Amino acid sequence: MRILIIGADGQLGTDLVKVIPKEEQIPLTIKNIDITNREITLQEIKNHQPDIVINTAAHNHVDKCEEEFALAFEINTYGVKYLAEACKATNSCLVHISTDYVFDGKKGKPYVETDQPNPQSIYAISKYAGEQIVKYSLDKYFIIRSTGLYGTAGCLGKGGTNFVESILKLAATQPELKVVTDEILSPTYTLDLAKQIYELVKTNKYGLYHAVSHGSCSWYDFAVKIFELLGRKIKITKTTAAELKAAAKRPGYSALKNAALEKISLDKMRPWQEALKAYLIEKGYLKPA
To answer: What is the overall mean pLDDT for the chain?
Structure first.
């Protein structure tokens, strides 16, 4: 099996490179392939003739997408269209990573794959459009929605950081942290997600899947747990999304449930608390028990 990884130096891509056996992987970065260029994308996929293409590339700075809407659609929608065309030409399976933000947050309990999306921001609309292109262009595909990603490599689109690293950095310079309580999600460790993706793509059970750490919490709860695990006392104050005045609208509740993975007995994810502890150990912030 030949698995081409697009965005191999990104947060999720780095962990996919760790998880997938070396002899099976073809890691590509922006230096090798620009998915917004149709001709280059088609040629690169044809050159490698992969069995599977995993697309982790995205414009995922949610607030910047509101201003850079053309770029958001260029990467998150048209780039996906070009990949779908290339995969159809080479009979490759396309694995497309999507987001919890396709939902509006009004359900109030974890979303499953059969729930109707209602994206509320430019980022979310562009990602959902990408999903639709994959769904209606290909027979062999996996659309994998996840949420609140954090990994040791950090997110390239956010300056090489993630929520955990950002909150630790802020705690080193500020006497008090303000974190939102009205955004509920399922924060997910990218190493766990990479392992789950690899297990899934080895099957032929194509379709739409949610893949997140089990459980849900607010960003405030997540921040509190970080310092609890580290044994540090930090003053954390509750705030709301409205008070932070973010440019993009975010769902107030976007926790996901891995219903489709459970249905095929392939849910390998663990509780978010366990995953967070494993991340802190991997980064050297905590000693293994």
So the answer is: 95
